[in-house]
Amino acid sequence: MLGNILFILVAITLIGLISITASPMPGGDRGVGAAFFLFLIGISFLIATGLLTWYLGWNNYFDWIGLPGIQRNGIIFIGWIAFASATLASAFFKVEWHAGEFPQFLRWLSQAQAAIWLPLLMLVPALILMNSDRTAANVSEYVKIPMMTAYILSILMGVGLLFGWYRAQSQQQAANIEYERTQNDEQHEKNLAWIAEQKPTDPILNILSFTGRFHDKDVRDSALAKVKSHPDWEAELIRLLSETEFDTEVYQFIDGNRVDHPELFVQPIKHSIRRVAGEIRDRIKDANDLQNWHFEHFSLDRLFRAIDEQFSLPGADYRAEVQELRNALDTPKPERFQKVKFTVTPLVDDWLKKHK
Question: Which of 43, 48, 299, 330 has an alpha carbon 20 to 30 Å from 187's alpha carbon atom?
Fold first, then answer.
């Protein structure tokens, strides 16, 4: 009884699937509604065929396959996935086909109404099995042959679908890589043009971000030359560190680019670290959305690397300032943000550990 009910559900969803794919999809709002209905029908068909397959396997209607239970169940499961996917694809490909993705034989089968005769090959024998007295030894060849034919065709179509999916993914990945490369090339040219436009009278802040070690060499060299074309470029860097909130821009410059008078930068760097510590304390105390805020990890990473590479001068000790920064990260948080963790904390801890 249950098997026949499940069979009817499969038949209803199959009829709906065939009906909605019998003509081209409409445009506009009707097209959106039709696509949504097609999605629901497809999911319903998948679920209904899965339940019917489970019922047949649970009640040993496939014991004529002649394999041990686990292997037989594996064969049945693979067959269901392949059959359902092949049927759905045959229906979908009637209304939408992307040339160059899936193998052409899937299109031919779709146009040959595979969404109709493939289910008939599988479901009519299943209906006969459920409504006849039989044993594994006396299952008719009229049942076995259509089901095995449908199984083999489903597997072949399933392989075609997997191949097409893999090819489509590869094509999309290649397109994404090409798009990203094009965007990077365009941005690269824009960066060079922007740097070239800068005059010695323009603020060096405009191009400090291009002097970082992770930029392309030609961009970095061009920006570095522009910065050093300013007669007072070191004094301006020191001013930005000491008097402004643009000190993180200076971090990008001093991380990998040598200055002529590193001793003049020691106190401004200390002042900058204390400013950052104060910013963190204030942000934690006044946080409205601390969950989505974090201090830029890469900025402190650049600063610590710059200190170690060119500003660890005799008598220059930054531990007190960095410890103040670390203490700022421990500022008591509002109750609702108690579980928030700052990703920059381990970086500060590592630096302090190395400079005991």
Answer: 299
Residue 186 burial class via C-beta count within 10 angstroms: exposed 0-12, middle 13-18, buried 19 and up: exposed
Coil, helix or strand at residue 198: coil
DSSP 303-343: HHHHIIIII--TT---HHHHHHHHHHHTSPPPGGGTT---T
Q: Where are the domains of the chain?
A: 2-181, 204-354
Contacts of 127 (CB under 8 A, 6+ apart): 4, 7
pLDDT tens, residue by residue, 241-279: 998 888 889 999 999 899 999 999 999 999 999 998 988
Q: Which two tokens stand for residue 7?
A: 């069979």
- Does residue 66 carry a pLDDT above 70? yes
Q: How many helices, marked H, and strands, marked E, lie in the chain?
A: 13, 0
Within 10 angstroms of residue 278's Cβ, the number of other Cβ atoms is: 13
Distant-in-sequence contacts of 138-142, Cβ < 8 A, 24+ apart? 139/64
Identify the residue with better confidence: 356 or 175: 175
Model-level pTM?
A: 0.61
DSSP H or E segment with residue 9: helix 2-20
Distance CA(106)–CA(86), nearest Å, equals 9
The DSSP code sequence of 51-113 is: HHHHHHHHTTTTGGG-S-HHHHHHHHHHHHHHHHHHHHHHHHHHH---TTTS-HHHHHHHHTT
**Cβ pair 3, 42 in contact under 8 A:** no
> Looking at this protein, which amino acid is placed at residue 101?
E
Tokens of 74: 């594996």
Among residues 254, 266, 350, which one has the least CA distance to residue 309? Answer: 254
Asked if 109 contacts 158 with a C-beta cutoff of 8 angstroms, the reply is: no
